[in-house]
Amino acid sequence: MSTPRTTRWRDHRSRWTGCDLCPAICAGRKVFGRGSLHPDILFLGIGPGEGEDTLGVPFVGPAGKILTGAIEFAEKKTGWHPTKFWSNLVLCRPTEGHSNRDPSEDEIENCRGRLRELLEITKPKAVIRLGRLVASHAPVELLRVQAIDLWHPAAILRDRSRTSGYQDSMARAFGTLRGRIED
Ligand code: URA
After folding, report:
1. What is the DSSP string of 80-135?
2. What is residue 47's three-state secondary structure?
3. Using a 6 Å cutoff on CB, does residue 153 contact ligand 1?
4. Closest CA to 40 of 160, 148, 155
5. Can you tell me the distance from the alpha carbon of 80 to that of 60, in angstroms, rounded to the nearest whole number?
6. Which atom of ligand 1 is nearest to the CA of 58?
7. Is 17 exposed, middle or buried (0-12, 13-18, 19+ CB in 10 A)?
8. CA 106 – CA 20 distance, rounded (Å)
9. CB-based burial label for 165 (10 Å; 0-12, 13-18, 19+)
10. How confident is the model at residue 102 (pLDDT cuts 50, 70, 90)?
11. How confident is the model at residue 183 (pLDDT cuts 50, 70, 90)?
């Protein structure tokens, strides 16, 4: 059965599907997001990578596996299973040749209205910003909700020795947010 939130989500997707504000990257898929439309936590990444562009779903590639592992670790450690949503600063995969690149300032700006709408529709109770680029381009004034900053999982792909530290930091973030959300 349709609820107002699912109706708004469908409407949001159909309006942004035709977006062509970023000519260098918008020929690929729009990767809108996945998860609960009533999230305790919104995980906000940078932009889709190759696997995400192929499947149309965020965080399904190698960085996504690191993130999922850290979330599973945190759930086990804290016993808390928050509802979650995953999305990115930009909808489309920024590429340089065949490689991923960071989105440009203009591309992030072009996608800000879409991100604002996503936040209005899903009303997350907290946001986990993944990486410095996200922390600096998704300020609390935009999010209008508490935020915790963690490394982007791609940093762990580059240096696997950080895996357990990353998982611990996710568990600490869950502990903090649980206390705030359930109060
Ligand atoms: N990295 C991101 O920032 N987002 C994704 O969806 C996948 C990899």
Report:
1. ----EEEEES-SS--EETTEE-PPPHHHHHHTHHHHHHHHHHH--SEEEEESHHHH
2. coil
3. no
4. 148
5. 23
6. 6
7. exposed
8. 13
9. exposed
10. very high
11. confident
Backbone angles phi, psi at 46, to 5 degrees: -90, -60
Name the one residue in this structure whose structure tokens are 């762990």. Answer: 156
Tell me which residue has tokens 């357990």. 164
Instruction: Give per-residue pLDDT as tens, 11-25.
Output: 999 999 999 999 999
Best mutation site among 25, 34, 88 for ligand 1 pocket (most ligand atoms within 8 Å of CB): 88
The residue to which tokens 């016993």 are assigned: 79
C-beta 100 within 6 A of ligand 1 = no
Reading the block at residue 64, the tokens are: 């996504």
Instruction: Put residue 59 in one of left, alpha, beta given phi > 0 → left and psi -120 to 50 → alpha.
Output: left
